[in-house]
Amino acid sequence: MKTLLGRDAWNAPGLNELGLIKIEQKNWNEAKEWFERAVGVQPDYSIAYYNLGLAYRNLNQPAESAANFEKYLKANPAASDAAKVRQWITSLRASSLHK
Known about the structure:
Blueprint: H1 2-5, H2 12-24, H3 28-41, H4 46-58, H5 62-75, H6 82-97
């Protein structure tokens, strides 16, 4: 952990990387916590919102997933995957209505 964060425990990219490690381990709850720390440190760190969206989606929390994908697009409106993410948001919003 110290290697990823370097000297700064408030390093958003390092916190995000720790979340990605947890995703590889299929530990979505812990991944979510790391991504939340990353955006807490750097609120405009768009990739962490994207990863939070993935984590919430895999935790079967569609409303939270859609909200974080929306934050990703707000922070990065020119994202190359914006169309795909908008489709996900639409689908997630529809599925959250059926819960």
